[in-house]
Amino acid sequence: MVTLILTLVPCAIGIAINHYKPNYSAVVKRVGFSILMICSIIVLTLSAIAVKDAFWMIIKPDVLCAGALLPLIGFIMGYVISTICGLSPQCSRTISMETGCQNVNLCGAILKVVFPPNVIGPMFLFPLVYITFQCSEALLVILCFRCYQKFKSPVKDTKIYNNVDMYQEVVQ
Q1: Are 47 and 128 within 8 A, CB to CB?
Q2: Cβ–Cβ contacts within 10 Å for residue 117, how many?
Q3: In what helix (H) or strand (E) does residue 60 lie, and over which residues does it extend?
Q4: Which of 31, 39, 89, 157 lies 20 to 30 Å from 114 when distance is taken between CA atoms?
Q5: How far apart are the C-alpha atoms of 34 and 114, rounded to whole Å?
Q6: From which domain of life does this come (predicted)?
Q7: Residues in CB range of 82: below 8 A, 6 or more apart
Q8: Please, are residues 72 and 137 in contact by the beta-carbon 8 Å criterion?
Q9: 128: how many CB neighbours lie within 10 A of its CB?
């Protein structure tokens, strides 16, 4: 229940800020991203200190493979399905990022709610593996898109505008 509240309340606050004070949303986004990066670095550092060598005994190659493939599949399927549905490339890219990035909170919530603590134990580290691959894959996708934008040839303006003069004046 707490996980659901901690996920939904910030989303509701963000939606309210974007709806009622849209000029503040850019500042809130920058501050929130900065806080996210600082907290992520702290959590990853403390997690690495806490588990040390046990991490490699707990996390097997198949778990690492799943942690690497899940966000990648989310990015690809989000883009492909939105393109099939006829959405614009901008919307498809947004949906791709959303479907690839929204699953970490869900992953943690499912692990916490479904499994008792004595069963889940060290597998609760999976969200850390997942978020690590998710962030690195998201940065890779963004980097590839930026390179594509930089090196693609500019699109020529193919629209033809005809100026039609509806009222012709007769000059005498």
Answers
A1: yes
A2: 8
A3: none
A4: 39
A5: 32
A6: Eukaryota
A7: 91, 92, 95, 96
A8: yes
A9: 20
Q: What is the 3-state secondary structure (H, E, C) of 91-115?
A: HHHHHHHHHHHCHHHHHHHHHHHHC
Q: What is the pLDDT, as a whole number, of residue 81?
A: 92
Does pTM top 0.90 for this prediction? Answer: no
Q: Tokens 């959590």 label which residue?
A: 43
Contacts of 72 (CB under 8 A, 6+ apart): 100, 133, 137
DSSP string, 129-160: HHHHHHHHHHHHHHHHHHHHHHHSPPPP----
**Are 106 and 44 in contact, with CB atoms under 8 Å apart?**
no
| 42 backbone φψ class: left, alpha, beta (φ>0; ψ -120 to 50) | alpha
Name the pLDDT band for 171 (thresholds 50, 70, 90).
low
pLDDT in tens, 96-125: 888 877 766 677 777 777 777 777 766 777
Token reading at 2: 């707490």
Amino acid identity of 41? I
Q: Taking phi first (over 0 means left), then psi (-120 to 50 degrees means alpha), and beta for anything else, what does residue 155 get?
A: beta
pLDDT of amino acid 125: 75
- CB atoms closer than 10 angstroms to residue 93: 19
Task: Report d(CA 112, CA 105) in Å as an integer.
Answer: 11
